[in-house]
Amino acid sequence: MSPVMVLAGDEDFELYRRLAKLKDSLLDPAFASFNFARFETPSITDVLDNALTVPFGPGNKVVIFDKCDFFTRKSAGKGKDKSDSGSATQKQLDSLDDSLGSVHPNTYLIFACPFNFDSNLKMSKIMLKHAKPEEFPKAKYYIGSPNPKLETWVRKEAKAKGATIDDTAIAYLLDGTEANLRQIYSEIDKAATYIMPKTHITYDVVVEMSPHHSHVFTLLDHWLEGRASSALDSAIELLSRQPALKVIATLQTFLSRWIEMKVICEQANAKLPFAPGVQRRELPFPEQLKRVASEMKTQPFLIEKDLKRLRTHSSAYLIKKRRQLTNFEFLVKSGRLNEKNALELFIAS
Question: What contacts 24+ positions apart, CB below 8 Å, involve 40-46?
């Protein structure tokens, strides 16, 4: 194991969990008061002052440079990068290169960088001579869309707590938290404790333990059913937890997905044979569900509720509402409309 390590990426939950494991595995608790140091938002001077230190007594010395931003591009004026524009002199960069190449084999320098690693920076190029970054990128997640990697992650976390978990519960947690791994970890921990001595986490359990995740779904249910007053109440609850623009972004995601679903159904229905004077036929719901799941490459259980919600709404109506929401979002971002009012107008109109 190299004595110089870089943990980098915007998935900070996994990054810091890895950091904790490294610290526990490398550090002798009996000598921790002598052999452990941590520097938050370190300077190059902090690194140079500690790079050549040696352990006290047996075991290893561990130096953590936390929230380190050496290897990420930072704004310092248009077209410039702070890391390459004066924050480090060439002499410091040369000293850093020499020091990192001379670290004692039992002294571990760990750079914890909750930002994505930019290999084009001068500091990054120096670091790449001495360490291969262990990267923790945040997985892209789209509400309602399958993500096998994240679904497997949730199952593994449940297994680590001695439990199994329903697919519908996984979808609820990923959608409700927008794939916030730290929050999902906490919810699984609560659910696994709650069901003891049982070991299977169901959809009903996570809804009961994490009811706040359901507010966006409640809002959407009320809105689609025409219950504007109840939808506004749900919106107020949501706005107490997150900015209106974030709620609007979530609504945009759902509307895009719903439009795609309705277009698939309407195109399939349009191909059915019909005669003049005879009411146009419609595919049975199970067939619609199967067709949409196949076209969108997703599991039927992930879209069944949405498809039922949309039975009385056409793609034309949904497209109209999405255009309206896009206009409101533009007005908010340009400062011409209050974001709370934008959400209220969308629901009430």
Answer: 40/66, 40/67, 41/66, 41/67, 41/68, 41/69, 42/66, 42/68, 44/70, 44/87, 44/88, 44/92, 44/96, 45/92
